[in-house]
Design a protein that fits this description.
This protein is α/β, with parallel strands linked by helices and 301 residues long. It has helices spanning 9-26, 31-38, 42-50, 57-66, 72-84, 99-110, 129-139, 145-158, 176-180, 186-200, 253-269, 275-288, 293-300, and strands at 113-118, 169-175, 205-210, 224-228, 237-241, 247-250. The protein has 13 helices and six strands. Residues 20-73 form the HTH cro/C1-type domain.
């Protein structure tokens, strides 16, 4: 665990990889040239610059010499980043998570602001265990119970981010269909709605609902997550994932700026006042058993 107020290991690795890439470019060297000078495989440097692996202090010192970095204060800063970035979050789940999703988790655990839009399901950070299991069971047929439990364990571990009154600010816009669809049945969905209401009433989590009446909107292209950081040298990042599981991560200012504008547009159209009360009312109607299309159709017969 980091000391209170200390940068997370993930953020320190993100900062270090950014600084090392900038230093290499400033030195006029390609990744292949650096690998040859260091007597490394090219893949080692590529993985360091991608933030997939850390770098030891013993490896970093000669690398900084290769980049002609001689300022002692700069060297100590980079060495401290290397020391602090060795233990990345969620490395114990490398057996089930792809490297792309581990990068996502590094951003998630380090960002000062997270903005998420989802038109399909309750975002993973907000899911109850029963809801998460129902979602995963629907598209992971044939998965063993043991592996399913591992995925659920990882998902719930992420929710430590929600604990306490201090920490990152989280903004969620979810489609009305997400709170209407009875994932896992009435009982599971009612508990999920009550959990969302509890979170929406807290100080750090904003949950807004995009109603059907809005019609076509920018979020129809799919779910996305935006990460913003307090450290000036850390660029904002955008993460996209499609139903096939393919993912895309970018810190291009043009892309992050475009998605930020889309998120603000979705917020403008969303229901944002007394959302906790609204969610509890929806949960209550589920308990009455008359809040779905099947019940409405039965009334017309």
């Amino acid at each position: 665990m980091s000391a209170p107020g200390a940068p997370s290991a993930a953020l320190q690795r993100l900062r270090l990889r950014t600084e090392l890439r900038k230093a290499r470019i400033k030195a006029g060297l390609t990744q292949r040239e650096v690998a040859q000078k260091m007597e490394w495989s090219p893949s080692k440097l590529i993985r360091i610059e991608a933030g997939e692996v850390g770098i030891s202090v013993n490896d970093l010192r000669p690398l900084l010499t290769t980049y002609d970095i001689t300022d002692r204060r700069k060297i100590e800063t980079l060495l401290d980043l290397a020391r602090g970035s060795r233990k990345m979050p969620f490395t114990e789940f490398r057996d089930i998570y792809s490297k792309e999703f581990l990068q996502y988790l590094a951003l998630e655990s380090s960002a000062s602001i997270i903005r998420n839009f989802n038109p399909l399901v309750v975002p993973g950070l907000l899911q109850t265990e029963e809801y998460a299991r129902a979602v995963m069971s629907s598209y992971s047929q044939g998965m063993s119970e043991e592996l399913m439990d591992r995925y659920i364990e990882g998902r719930l571990a992420r929710q430590d981010l929600l604990q306490g009154d201090e920490g990152s600010q989280l903004f969620f816009v979810i489609d009305e269909s997400v709170v209407r669809r009875q994932v896992g049945g009435r009982g599971v969905m009612r508990t999920q709605l009550e959990r969302l209401a509890e979170l929406a009433a807290g100080p750090r989590v904003s949950i807004q609902i995009l109603p059907f009446s809005v019609g076509a909107h920018p979020g129809m292209q799919g779910p996305f997550t935006l990460f913003e950081f307090e450290a000036e040298e850390m660029p904002d990042s955008i993460y996209l994932e499609n139903p096939r599981g393919d993912s895309y991560l970018s810190n291009s200012p043009e892309e992050t700026g475009r998605y930020l504008e889309s998120f603000w547009e979705l917020e403008d159209a969303a229901v944002k006042d007394d959302v906790d009360t609204l969610l509890l009312r929806l949960a209550g109607r589920l308990g009455e058993g008359r809040d779905d299309l099947v019940s409405l159709l039965a009334e017309t017969e």
